[in-house]
Design the sequence.
């Protein structure tokens, strides 16, 4: 499955409805940007979608979900923990295999943080941590990406580089982005969220930044 | 002031302790208490490290029992922590940790005799229960997010080792190291029931009036604990753990017939053994309850409540000794040394010493419990008070103490105190072995009279009392929204 069709999604917080009910149909190959004011429910929606399509997607949550005490290598390796036997994973914890090290290192080279391979993620900067989470999602090798502000801590060129990489490696993606320029540049479809509902749903080529502004 | 719940609870507990004092047996019965105390202190400042050859062996055995017991306890505790969600596991752990190391030792002595296994299990069993609880709390606090992000189909063990353990690792290690220190104290006092550790030699030195020998042992014990971070290094740990079992001593061989007899005859309540039926059982239990359990519970509770308040007073008085808001570095160093000594001396040893000097009454027990526990809490809140930043023109002296510091540390002070409530009660019960009429006294007498059935019932009662106080302490801490990390 490289697309999904979900309907009747709802979420409540403290008894107050924050999402939906809403439906979303994403076809294979679509790159959807979720835009909207902070607090509109984008992160909640990403989380809900992940619950629905978990098995087929890689997730980059806003808080990244890194294991701070582990080095970058192991955090990235965790993206494919299911692919190896338990004894192999335990050995890797103690002493990684060369094959995996090379593979992870190649990914980190593309993200320009290969020199941090053995550094615990706790001591990395915000932007570096974000790139580790991106590397983990890439390493997981799934067709679909669900990401919540994956480049918010990166500066201009680095943000473009990462977005380009994500587009290359994932067939389908749903990315929450507050940066309208990036959304229009890298996504094929813009979905605007307002008060937990879909307030805008158009192909990117039909939109200009001015069309999206009213959502903010 | 009175409307504050923390002040109110403090006043209620103080009032209970004052009422308790009326009923408590507080006296100095020795003919020459101060002269003996003087001779003891003279002994401490003129230690004799070479008189008994047994001293080095006793230290070695103390360390060996601590390592083997704590290592075994931490492995079992870790495994239990993994299934700690299950209610029966929680109850089982609460139960095994509610029984003091010395009680476990007394039980195992009856059927394993003076075999090293007795000392190892006496430490390992209650420690497993404590480790299980604390480890599971630490693991629970780990960020659940990395676990949620793992690809579906990841094995349980891989997920646990990658997503959960690493972020808790430092905390798990710190707590285990801290427990090792507690294990050294537990190991030392096991000597009082005849195992070949420090307590055994301390007791014989005292009973013969060799105060310089006793002083030497105490000083070496403090040095051992104070230098713990220097000689316990992660790299050396496997060496210690693998080596320790070989230094436990030979002891006596286990007579397996005794083990069978203990479980099939000794601990079977006598009315059942003599086929007096359930009526006889009722009468037997009733008599046991009225003659031994009730007076034991009464004295244990009174002594606990007095010791609890005394602990609080000592803690509040002693924390300025190490606080950076008072005194210069010289005085603070002195304060640290003083509090380390209070912390490192097991209350059992303190009580034993004071009992020898002052004669039997509740007083030595109260003072011992208050000094040891007050030293621990004083150290913790003193350290915490140093992290408080005062405004540059803050008052000094007594005003600084009463207005700036005590109000700020009072909540965590109460949290620690209520956390230690159950620990104080467990110790109070055990001090009965020294001749104070708490539950331990009745347990010990029953064992002396070879009535193991009665001893077991009394130990079960003691355990339930501890569990009850533990629950009550937790309820109070939750009501007052007090949080704390575990201390031993």
Sequence:
């Amino acid at each position: 499955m490289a697309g999904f069709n979900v309907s009747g999604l709802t979420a409540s917080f403290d008894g107050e409805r924050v999402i939906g009910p809403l439906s979303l149909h994403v076809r294979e190959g679509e790159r959807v940007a979720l835009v909207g004011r902070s607090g509109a429910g984008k992160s909640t929606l990403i989380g809900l979608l992940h619950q629905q399509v978990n098995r087929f997607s890689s997730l980059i949550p806003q808080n990244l979900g890194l294991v701070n005490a582990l080095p970058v290598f192991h955090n990235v390796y965790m993206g494919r923990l299911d692919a190896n036997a338990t004894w192999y994973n335990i050995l890797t914890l103690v002493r990684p295999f060369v094959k995996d090290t090379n593979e992870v290192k190649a990914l980190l080279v593309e993200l320009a943080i290969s020199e941090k391979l053995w550094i615990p993620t706790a001591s990395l900067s915000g932007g570096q941590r974000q790139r580790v989470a991106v590397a983990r999602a890439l390493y997981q090798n799934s067709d679909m990406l669900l990401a919540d502000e994956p480049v918010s801590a990166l500066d201009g060129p680095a943000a473009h580089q990462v977005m380009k990489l994500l587009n290359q490696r994932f067939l389908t993606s749903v990315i929450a982005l507050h940066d309208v320029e990036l959304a229009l540049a890298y996504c094929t479809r813009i979905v605007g969220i307002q008060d937990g509902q879909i307030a805008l749903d158009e192909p990117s080529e039909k939109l200009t930044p001015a069309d999206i502004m009213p959502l903010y | 002031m009175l409307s504050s719940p923390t002040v109110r609870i403090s006043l209620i507990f103080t009032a209970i302790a004052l009422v308790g004092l009326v009923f408590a047996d507080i006296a100095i019965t020795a003919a020459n208490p101060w002269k003996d105390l003087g001779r003891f202190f003279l002994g401490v400042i003129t230690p004799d490290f070479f008189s008994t050859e047994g001293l080095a062996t006793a230290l070695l055995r103390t360390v060996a029992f601590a390592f083997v017991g704590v290592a075994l306890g931490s492995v079992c505790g870790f495994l239990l922590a993994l299934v700690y969600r299950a209610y029966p596991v929680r109850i089982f752990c609460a139960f095994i940790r509610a029984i003091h190391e010395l009680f476990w030792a007394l039980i195992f002595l009856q059927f394993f005799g003076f075999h090293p296994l007795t000392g190892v299990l006496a430490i390992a069993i209650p420690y497993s229960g404590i480790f299980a609880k604390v480890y599971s709390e630490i693991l629970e606090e780990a960020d659940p997010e990395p676990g949620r992000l793992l690809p579906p189909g990841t094995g349980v063990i891989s997920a646990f080792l990658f997503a959960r353990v690493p972020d808790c690792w430092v905390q798990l290690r710190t707590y285990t190291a801290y427990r090792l220190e507690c294990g050294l104290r537990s190991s030392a006092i096991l000597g009082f029931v005849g195992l070949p550790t420090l307590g055994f030699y301390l007791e014989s030195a005292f009973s013969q009036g060799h105060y310089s020998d006793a002083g030497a042992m105490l000083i070496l014990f403090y040095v051992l604990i104070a230098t713990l971070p220097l000689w316990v290094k992660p790299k050396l740990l496997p060496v210690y753990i693998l080596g320790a079992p070989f230094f436990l001593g030979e002891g006596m061989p286990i007579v397996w017939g005794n083990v069978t007899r203990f479980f099939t005859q000794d601990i079977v309540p006598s009315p059942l053994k003599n086929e007096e039926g359930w009526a006889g059982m009722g009468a037997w239990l009733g008599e046991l309850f009225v003659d031994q359990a009730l007076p034991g519970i009464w004295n244990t509770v009174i002594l606990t409540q007095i010791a609890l308040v005394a602990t609080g007073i000592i803690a509040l008085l002693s924390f300025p000794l190490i606080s950076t808001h008072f005194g210069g570095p010289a005085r603070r160093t002195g304060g640290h040394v003083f509090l380390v000594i209070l912390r490192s001396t097991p209350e059992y040893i303190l009580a034993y010493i004071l009992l020898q000097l002052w004669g039997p009454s509740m007083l030595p027990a109260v003072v011992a419990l208050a000094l040891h526990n007050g030293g621990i809490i004083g150290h913790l809140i003193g350290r915490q008070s140093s992290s408080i930043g005062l405004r540059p023109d803050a008052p000094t002296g007594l005003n600084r103490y009463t207005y700036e510091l005590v109000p700020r540390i009072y909540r965590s002070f109460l949290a620690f105190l209520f956390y230690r409530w159950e620990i104080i009660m467990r110790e109070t019960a055990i001090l009965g072995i020294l001749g104070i009429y708490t539950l331990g006294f009745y347990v010990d007498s029953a064992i002396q009279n070879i009535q193991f059935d009665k001893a077991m019932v009394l130990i079960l009662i003691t355990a339930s009392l501890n569990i009850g106080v533990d629950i009550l302490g937790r309820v109070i801490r939750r009501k007052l929204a007090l949080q704390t990390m575990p201390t031993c």
